[in-house]
Amino acid sequence: MTIKLRPATSDDAEAVMRLHLQCHEEAYGRHLPPSFFAMRRETLPGRVDNLRRGIEAGHIPMLAYDGGGLLGLAAGGPAQHADAPVPVELYMLYILQRAYGSGAGQLLLDAAIGHEAAFLWVLADNPRAQAFYAKNGFALDGASDVLGDDWHNLPEVRMVRAAVAP
User: Fold this and answer.
1) pTM of the full predicted structure?
2) Phi, psi values for residue 67, rounded to 5°
């Protein structure tokens, strides 16, 4: 599998949001009821429009793909939390199950935040993701939060890393 990266364009918005939904279903299917995913499918057009506007405004996620299509996406940038432990935040990193272990996640992580000191939020009950981030120097810092009602109040934890040598 040869994995390539490229920035998303506004023309990618629908495919990216469908990928995002599939990744959510694969990663969070055991945490959330089918009604959650049904709602996400129903609201897909609005999220596609939001992503398209975001891309046009310069908020561009990085995409991983191979000969079979899109594999994952990631985005990072300036911290969006007032109590941020470091200035860079990984906003999202999602990979399809078919690409687990392929290196796509590593490529996306490196493209999204480079070697900067950074932090992220991850579901408290997501050992696979936490292990991936730990391998990349992230550690739990004791901060926790709860996602909103629309996400069924799932608990999340914060992971932080110092800058890493290139």
Assistant:
1) 0.93
2) -60, -20
